[in-house]
Amino acid sequence: MTRRRARPVRVTPDVTWFPPSDGGVGALLRLADGVPEEAVRQIRDTGVGGLLPIGNVFVRDGAVWLRTPQPSGPTIDDLTTGTGLGTEDAVAVLGGIARVVRALHARGLHHGRIAGDTVLLDPSGAPLLVMVRPGPHDRARDERCLAALARTLAAAWCDADGAALLHRFAGRLVLDGLDEALPALPRAAPPGPARLAVVRRWSRRS
After folding, report:
1. How far apart are alpha carbons 192 and 200 in whole angstroms?
2. Is the separation of the CB atoms in 169 and 92 below 8 Å?
3. Gene3D superfamilies attached here (predicted)?
C-alpha cells in the first residue's frame, strides 16, 4: 500500500473502505481509532460463516488496516428504496444475519452495533455482517439491534404480510431472545433475480 491512497468509497463509524492499491479484487479497510490489531485477528479466527471475510491485518501510520476479498457491495442502508426487493429477500437477509449472530453468541462473542451499514450483500446476493472487533458483552443489545433491522427491512422491502411477519419476529426477539424468535423465520431461499440484479447494478456503478 502506498502513502498516496485513493479516495474512500464508503465511510461508517467502524471502518473506512478504500479500493485496493494494487488494483486487485476486494477492498482495504481502515479501522476506527482505538481498535487493537489483536481484536481484528480474533474475529478473523472465529470460523463463523457469514461475517465479512478478513485477510491480512496490519498497522500503518498508526491505524489498523485489513484486506478483504469482498468488494464494497451494497449495504441495507443503500437499498431502502427503488430496489424491487421483496419479502422473500427481507426474510433471507434477516434470517442469515440472525443466524450469524447466534453463532457468535455461541462462541461468547457479541457484535454491539448491528445496523443497516454493517450488513452488505456479497456478489452472489448473500448477506454478510461486517464485524471487525468484539462488541460489548451484551446479548440483549444485539437482539435489540436485530429487531430494529427487522423493522427497517419490513418497511423497505415487504408487503403487508411480510411486514407483519418481521414485526412479530422483532417483538418475540426483544421479549424472549434470539433462540426463541429465530424459528419464526422461514429458512432462507437462494437469492432471486431481483437481488442478483441489484448486486450487479451496484457492481457496475462502483
Report:
1. 12
2. no
3. Transferase(Phosphotransferase) domain 1
Note whether 128 and 52 are within 8 A (CB).
Answer: yes
Measured distance CA(103)–CA(155) in Å, rounded: 27
- The cell for 195 is 437481488
DSSP β-bridge partners for residue 67: 28
| pTM, full prediction | 0.93
| Sequence spans of domains, the chain | 10-68, 76-205
DSSP 17: E
- Comparing CA positions, the residue from 156, 155, 148, 143 lying closest to residue 112 is 143
The superfamily CATH assigns to domain 76-205 is: Transferase(Phosphotransferase) domain 1 (1.10.510.10)
Summarize pLDDT for 125-156 with one digit per residue, the tens: 999 999 999 999 999 999 999 999 999 999 99
Q: How many residues does the chain have?
A: 206
Q: Are 167 and 74 in contact (CB under 8 A)?
A: no
